[in-house]
Automatic annotation (TrEMBL):
Domain named Glycoside hydrolase 35 catalytic: residues: 11-324
UniProt cross-references to PROSITE patterns, sorted A to Z: GLYCOSYL_HYDROL_F35
Gene3D superfamilies documented for this protein: Galactose-binding domain-like, Glycosidases
Species for this entry: Rossellomorea pakistanensis
Protein name: Beta-galactosidase
GO molecular function, a single term: beta-galactosidase activity
Domain Beta-galactosidase 1-like first all-beta: 369-479
Length: 579
């Protein structure tokens, strides 16, 4: 049996010491047809292990309803890793961070305004326990103790960055053990006093997350857990991007040198990320430092493999280091995918959002504006509508705690944006005959890290014109998870939110990238699949479109543009542009 254990301050696999060289690959950030390719490239680089999170919100999208098909078929991902001879480390929730929407927590938890996340609060734990029982039952047969590839599982994730509830951590550990998990359990945290005090437990292996200064990090770990194996569970060899920032990169030589030093000093390393992938749909998360910062669609992460699975200088440098360190002959490199430029596409048909409302949604009537979670909505957009009687003097429209970005319309005419990070305002008067007020709010991703994790969406407190609260609203949930009911017409121009449709021909499906010059902000759908958001503020200027999303022959492209485009053209190109 190849069980992982700690012995004399070292990691042992079965009867031999082992140095884990692992890479993070998230099955939920690529289409299933690509899983084998990315795992083969991990193996060809010399890695002996794959690590991944499991996002709760992907597998229990509706309370009590579980999903394990398609992109959520985690069993198949584990089986593929096993077939390639890779060991597996699993980090199975409830919280994962990962720059993923709400840190992997399901949004329906927020229907309970009093719930205390990531704590011993019973209103939280009752859902955690129910979910863990299901997901651990899926994972249990693949443990090394049952002849499978899973050698270790994580308890929570970087809990020391959030709280100090040791009873919560112990409860999760007990739930895992009670549900048949008998592989090595561990925690992972940053190398600081507070993080290690809050996130580690006696009797459970402690690992560290960092991007540099490994000697200092493990010196700090030794203070709390003497004679513990040196394991970097997240080696940050790249970084992620927020909208409006420059694209983050890390010099491949710097990343390789730090990695080489860790190998030479006996550290087991997990590359975060080895392959980043894509935040398809509305699954990107957000951070909140001094202000709200939503993450872009690409999760390229400047990793050794690009978003399209191509090799980088970082990949080749790391591969050479591993080959020299292990003295093992590495497999031949798998081929990169073919990239194709499918050229220009004109979106000749369109329909405005306001005309499309009857095909997309039904109004919910409420005395007060409700957040998404209170109307059983997870992601997308939500529209608040009210007819204001006149006359009313000119006053500022106040959206109390808008989450996250609101477009304001009077009689369908655009007035401006109110969002949670800029100090922009909209003010107006109301004529005697009155006016129709529409407020379209976009959920740009729930916060995935830090003390502001509890992040309901929509308008969460109230709407005022001046000092006066406005009551009695028609609320239109717009998850935009199915656009098949839309009725398009030809050759219309729109100066507000609208859907656009076009078709393009594919002789053979290949990876491609969609460029949207002249478009401002919105969402793209290829053959009904939401490939993610775009925004002119960058840094990302193209969206990755994997070949498996395309069909030989005619393909359909739909775009939901929030503002207006300078034209109706987009371009499929063969090179990405992440800024």
């Amino acid at each position: 049996m190849r069980n992982l254990k700690v012995q004399d301050g070292e990691l042992w696999l079965g009867e031999k010491p082992i140095q884990l060289i692992s890479g993070a690959i998230h099955y939920f950030r690529m289409v299933p047809e690509q899983w084998k390719d990315r795992l083969e490239k991990l193996k060809a680089c010399g890695f002996n292990c794959v690590e991944f999170y499991i996002p709760w919100n992907l597998h229990e999208p509706v309370s009590g309803e579980y999903h394990f098909e398609g992109i959520a078929n985690v069993e198949r991902f584990i089986q593929l890793a096993d077939e390639l001879g890779l060991l597996v480390i699993v980090r199975p929730s409830p919280y994962i961070c990962a720059e993923w929407e709400f840190g992997g927590l399901p949004s329906w938890l927020l229907k309970d305004e009093n719930i205390r996340l990531r704590s011993s609060d019973q209103s939280f734990l009752k859902y955690v326990d129910r979910y863990l029982k299901v997901i651990l039952n899926v994972l249990k047969p693949y443990q090394s103790t049952n002849g499978g590839p899973i050698i270790a599982m994580q308890i929570e994730n970087e809990y020391g960055s959030y709280g100090t509830d040791q009873e919560y951590l112990k409860h999760l550990r007990d739930v895992m053990i009670d549900n048949g998990i008998d592989v090595l359990l561990f925690t992972s945290d940053g190398p600081t006093d507070a993080m290690l005090q809050g996130g580690t437990m006696d009797g459970t292996l402690a690992t560290l997350n960092f991007g540099s200064k490994s000697d200092e990090a493990f010196k700090k770990l030794e203070e709390f857990h003497p004679n513990s194996p040196k394991i970097c569970m997240e080696y940050w060899n790249g970084w992620f991007d927020h909208w409006g920032e420059e694209h983050h990169t890390r010099d491949h030589k710097d990343a390789a040198d730090t990695f080489k030093h860790m190998l030479e000093t006996g550290v087991s390393v997990n590359f975060y990320m080895f392959y980043g992938g894509t935040n398809f749909g509305f699954y990107n998360g957000a951070n909140f430092g001094e202000f709200y910062q939503p993450t872009i669609t690409s999760y390229d992460y400047d990793a050794p493999l690009t978003e399209a699975g191509d090799y980088t200088e970082k990949y080749h440098a790391i591969r050479e280091i591993i080959a020299n360190h292990t003295k093992i002959e590495l497999p031949t490199l798998p081929k990169e995918s073919t990239k194709k430029s499918y050229g220009e596409v004109e979106l000749k048909q369109s329909v405005s959002l306001f005309n499309a409302l009857p095909d997309l949604t039904r109004a919910i009537h409420s005395p007060d504006p409700l957040p998404m979670e209170k109307v059983d909505q997870d992601y997308g957009f939500i529209l608040y509508r009210k007819f204001l009687k006149g006359p009313r003097e000119k006053m500022v429209l106040q959206l109390q705690e808008v989450r996250d970005r609101a477009l304001i319309f009077l009689n369908n005419d655009y007035q401006g944006v109110i969002d949670r990070w800029e100090d922009s305002t909209v003010e107006f008067s109301v004529p005697k005959e009155g006016v129709l007020l529409d407020i379209l709010v976009e959920n740009m991703g729930r916060i995935n890290y830090g003390p502001k994790l509890k992040d309901p969406k929509g308008i969460t407190e109230g709407i005022r014109h001046g000092r006066q609260f406005l009551h009695h609203w028609d609320i239109y949930p717009l998850p935009l998870d199915n656009l098949t009911a839309l009725s398009f017409t030809k050759d219309q121009s729109h100066h507000g939110p609208a859907f656009y449709k076009g078709e393009f021909q594919v002789d053979e499906p290949h990876d491609t990238f969609l460029a949207l010059p002249g478009w401002k902000k919105g969402v793209v759908y290829i053959n009904g699949f939401n490939v993610g958001r775009y925004w002119e503020k960058g840094p990302q200027e193209t969206l990755y479109v994997p070949a498996p999303l395309l069909e030989k022959g005619t393909n359909e492209l739909k775009i939901f543009e929030l503002h207006e485009s300078k034209g109706k053209l987009v371009h499929f190109v063969d090179q990405p542009n992440l800024g």
